[in-house]
């Protein structure tokens, strides 16, 4: 049974097939290998993302001091206009950083994408032994294009999640030093978000695999159809070809919708968690402000931080969801490469043709006791012996 058959959804019941074995290396381990191939560029990209997400912390602090000055709760120090200048500087700094951040990370991801595809093509073309594709050329194209893109999408999630995590940790430290009970109202929904995320990503992994295979079947069918247009027209099979394409697209639509439902559910739950945390802050802050333990500036700082701080678990959930999808993509890439060693797709130099050196030309081919059987039907040749001189030909009788 081929890989495509194993991953086909039952059209009658809609049941999903049993899961395929996990890849030899998880997405996290392969991502570390990809990052290690260009450590300097990856480190610069992560540092820029951390700075981009962490700089808004300054605007929250300045904003708190501005409101405390206006309400008369501020200690001696900068006046309002000085703080307004700092606030503008804090607002403009992320814009300056945002110019360099995409450049660094896009450079890293583009080079890494080229590295993976070059190593895949090098192994398929030049590795020793027979190279038997697990599917059609269209399916192989899908693995080169879409599966590599899924792996790199997981790498992109690293940078965004890292930046959000830096912001969340620093924001929680600042808020904890101001008011611990109100900060706890933010931490508890974040813990709940992490727990629910683990449950939802299991469904994302399950439906991602089926959706990817359904998309690969459509790509394969379209590619084969274009290479056999003349045969289809001669046989008058246009209607049957279009009907088959419609069936494949319907299966692709169904599986893609199921996968998208889980991803949207994860985002919706994350947004709801942020709103819940903000509501709890409003309730707790009202009592703290009435007791004189919470100033207007403190409230504005919490309100500025809570949205981004509580979104950190949502970004973590997205990263875990991408990790599940990347696991599926790596599983398909490993199936295509067959017996490739671990880390083959992250090698600095692609597999190339082995040097042959200088050899004397072949003059005589001598074969003794050759037996070769085709798989399945048992046809072939048995105990064939012959000698073939250069410039002559031989015929092997059936």
Describe the structure.
It is a single chain. This protein is mainly α and 398 residues long. The chain folds into two domains: 3-346, Up-down Bundle (ABC transporter transmembrane region fold); 362-398, no CATH class. The protein is built from ten helices and two strands. The chain has helices at residues 3-6, 27-37, 39-54, 56-71, 80-126, 137-178, 180-227, 229-235, 238-290, 296-337, and strands at 364-373, 380-389. A two-stranded antiparallel sheet has the order 1-2. β1 and β2 form a beta hairpin. α5 (80-126) runs antiparallel to α6 (137-178). The radius of gyration is 30 Å and the shape is elongated. The two termini are 31 Å apart. The model is unreliable at 1-23 (pLDDT under 50).
Features:
ABC transporter transmembrane region fold, 10 helices, mainly alpha, single chain, 398 residues, 5% strand, two-stranded antiparallel ribbon
What layout of secondary structure does this protein have?
Blueprint: H1 3-6, H2 27-37, H3 39-54, H4 56-71, H5 80-126, H6 137-178, H7 180-227, H8 229-235, H9 238-290, H10 296-337, E1 364-373, E2 380-389
Antiparallel strand pairs: 1-2
């Amino acid at each position: 049974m081929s890989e495509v058959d194993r991953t086909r959804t039952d059209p009658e019941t809609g049941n999903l097939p049993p899961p395929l074995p996990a890849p030899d290396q998880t997405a996290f381990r392969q991502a570390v290998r990809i990052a290690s191939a260009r450590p300097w560029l990856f480190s610069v990209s992560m540092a820029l993302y951390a700075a981009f997400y962490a700089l808004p912390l300054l605007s929250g602090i300045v904003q708190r001091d501005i409101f405390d000055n206006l309400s008369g709760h501020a200690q001696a120090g900068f006046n309002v206009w000085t703080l307004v200048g700092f606030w503008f500087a804090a607002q403009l700094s992320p814009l300056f950083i945002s110019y360099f951040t995409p450049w660094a990370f896009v450079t890293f991801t583009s080079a890494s994408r080229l590295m993976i595809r070059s190593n895949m093509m090098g192994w398929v073309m030049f590795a020793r032994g027979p190279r038997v594709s697990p599917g059609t050329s269209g399916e192989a194209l899908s693995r080169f294009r879409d599966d590599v893109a899924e792996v790199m999408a997981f790498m992109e999630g690293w940078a965004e999640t890292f930046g959000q995590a830096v912001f969340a940790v620093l924001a929680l430290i600042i808020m904890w030093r101001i008011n611990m009970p109100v900060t706890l109202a933010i931490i508890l929904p974040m813990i709940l978000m992490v727990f629910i995320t683990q449950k939802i990503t299991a469904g994302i992994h399950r439906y991602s695999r089926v959706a990817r295979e359904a998309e690969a079947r459509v790509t394969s069918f379209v590619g084969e159809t274009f290479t056999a247009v003349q045969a289809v027209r001669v046989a008058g099979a246009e209607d049957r070809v279009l009907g088959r394409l419609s069936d494949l697209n319907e299966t692709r639509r169904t599986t893609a919708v199921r996968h998208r439902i889980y991803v949207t559910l994860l985002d919706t739950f994350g947004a709801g968690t942020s709103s819940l945390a903000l509501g709890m802050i409003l309730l707790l802050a009202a009592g703290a402000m009435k007791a004189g333990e919470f100033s207007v500036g403190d409230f504005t700082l919490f309100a500025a931080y809570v949205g981004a701080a509580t979104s950190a678990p949502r970004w973590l959930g997205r990263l875990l969801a991408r990790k599940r999808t990347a696991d599926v993509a790596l599983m398909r890439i490993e199936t295509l490469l067959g017996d490739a060693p671990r880390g083959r797709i992250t090698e600095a130099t692609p597999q190339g043709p082995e040097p042959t050196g200088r050899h004397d030309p072949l003059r005589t081919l001598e074969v003794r006791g050759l037996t070769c059987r085709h798989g399945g039907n048992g046809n072939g040749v048995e105990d064939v012996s012959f000698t073939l001189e250069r410039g002559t030909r031989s015929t092997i009788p059936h």
